[in-house]
Amino acid sequence: MSARQGLVLSLPAVLFLALAFVYPFGYGLFLSVTPRTGGPLANYAAFFGDEFQRASIGNTFALALPAALLCVLLAVPLAYRMRHGLRGERVLTALLVVPVTLGPVFIADAMLFYFGPVGWFNRTLESLHLIDAPVRLLHTYGAVLLAIMLTAFPFAFLLMLGYVSGIDPALERAAHMLGAGRWQTFRRVLLPLMAPGIATAFALTFVLAFGVFPSAVLLGEPGGSTRVLSIAAFQAAYERFDFSAGSAIALVMGALQLALIGLVFALRARLYAGPARGGKG
Amino acid sequence: MSGTRPAGPLETALRVLFAVVLGVFFINLFAAMATVVVNSFAQTWFGGWWPSGFTTRWYGYADSQFAMVDVLRFTIVVTLAVAVLACLMGVPAAYVLARAQFRGKRVLLALYLLPMLMPPLTYGIPLASQLYRTQLAATLPGVILINLVPALPFVILVMTPFIEQLDPNVERAARTLGASPLQVFRRVLFPLLVPGILTAALLVVVRTMGMFELTFLVSGADTQTLVVALYTALFGAGIRPAQAVDALAVVYMLTTLTMLVVALRFVSPTQMVFRVRE
Question: How many whole angstroms from its chain centre is CA B35?
Fold first, then answer.
């Protein structure tokens, strides 16, 4: 392929992303430092200076970190169990894609009735005499965490499954043959091979949880413990019609997310990075 | 391979964990989904295990209140347009990434990857403000445009490994035999690309159906997708009967799951979640 051909073929995509991603991004930076009133950093000062606004950072991490950790902690042993395939694997994985596909808005709708005071969940627990009165599940931090997990867990699980099934079973057999027990094989052979996948799954699940918006509004306490960064940014831009302040908060959000992903991948780079296949070499 | 050793306590514990976690997960997920379906057909359902009676009138009501059919039509037009445009721009770009080595490739890769690593609001809010200014917000082109931002990189990232595994010698052979670049594309390359393009397009359709945040930023009264209409209906909870909102949710669910079933004929579920290449 000549340089000219390559350029022509890449041009539409590059131009589009320059126009619809890079430019808005730069424009957002510009907007954020040209507030309606005050100096260039007034938006940032207002955000970090206001305790209510600043709390949205902590609220977001308080949801995203446990969600990502729990999802990965559950996904790793389950994916390990399925490493050699399972009967009905295709049906199981297809069912797992369902909540991912339906997305947080639908999940919120379903949870609103199901976990409500007269919903099937409370009703079942009551008739089993596990509880005396309906438990308040909705409009709490826990409901949002649960909603995130419903879409993020299958996501993490399928990602881990992709990694685990890429590990050559011969390596495991070799470890057994050399006298390693199951736990040793997992700890010394499989886990190191899975580690880069774990880091990636954690980062991507974190991204999914960090952007939480509809479920935080519909199922949480959007004025309190689940007032996350995306709510703060959205309210500034669309309820106070201050796109400048909204852009500033959105950029704080982007910077924090990139920082955490950067950290995860920096740690990941220190992990084992070699072939996951046996054979010559 | 598991036959090499008797199942130890670790294996048993794992089996129990596996069954319990997935069991609890699926029972609650499907029960919650069933609640939505049952309620959409309920005359009234204030308490009790089951509604007092069944009716289909909420679907008609939802159509008159939420313009459901129009919203559905709009959703289909948007998702198809996004899929087609993302493939038109993304496939050639992926071809370059897969076949050519050049300086600045990392920069190009970063440009393609960044939109997927950024929270949508970081570029969505300023982009929406631009679209409002140019009167493109709340129009069909505006909704398509903002949805293309994550869709295009997605197509590139799906297509690049697909093209890498096609043998370049096939194209070379065609050229040696005297085919013009256009002929190589039409007769050789395109037929080979079709399965990959179909996969990418279907995945984009499924993702765009559920894409809430970006669409929400630019949609107006007549330019809502199903997921945005559902959110708006839920946000104004209490204004309209919950059964009508659930009727809308069922229509959204059926549309999305139909696309998912079609997509799963071509892709394995593990491919549905985006997998970063090593």
Answer: 24
B27 touches chain A (CB under 8 A): no
| C-beta of residue A219 within 8 angstroms of C-beta of residue A143 | yes
- Minimal Cβ distance to B231: which of A24, A118, A214: A214
Task: Tell me which CATH code domain A58-269 carries.
Answer: 1.10.3720.10
Q: Say whether B111 and A14 touch across the interface (CB within 8 A).
A: yes
Q: What residue spans define the domains of chain A? A: 58-269
User: What is the DSSP code (8-state) at residue A138?
Assistant: S
Number of domains in chain B: 2
Give yes or no: residues B23 and B112 share one domain. Answer: no
* B142 part of a folded domain: yes
- Residues of A in Cβ contact (< 8 Å) with B256: 101-103, 106
Same domain, yes or no, for B79 and B7? Answer: no
Q: How far is CA A134 from the centre of its chain?
A: 31
Distance CA B233, CA B243 (A): 11
A123/B49 touch (CB, cutoff 8 Å), yes or no: yes
Domain that holds residue B35: 2-40
Distance from CA of A54 to the nearest CA of B (A): 17
* ipTM of this complex: 0.89
Q: How far is A72 from chain B (nearest CA, A)?
A: 13
Tell me the pLDDT tens digit for each residue of B84-130: 999 999 999 999 999 988 888 999 999 999 998 889 999 999 999 99
Do B28 and B71 have their domain in common? no
Three-state SS at A132: coil
CA distances from B227 to A113, B4, B46, B210 (A): 18, 50, 26, 6
Taking only the tens place, the pLDDT of each residue in B31-44 is 999 999 999 999 88
Closest CA to B269 of A75, A206, A157: A157
Which residues 76-115 of chain B have a CB within 8 Å of chain A?
88-90, 92-93, 95-96, 99-100, 102, 108, 111-112, 114-115
User: CA–CA separation, B271 vs A89, rounded Å?
Assistant: 14
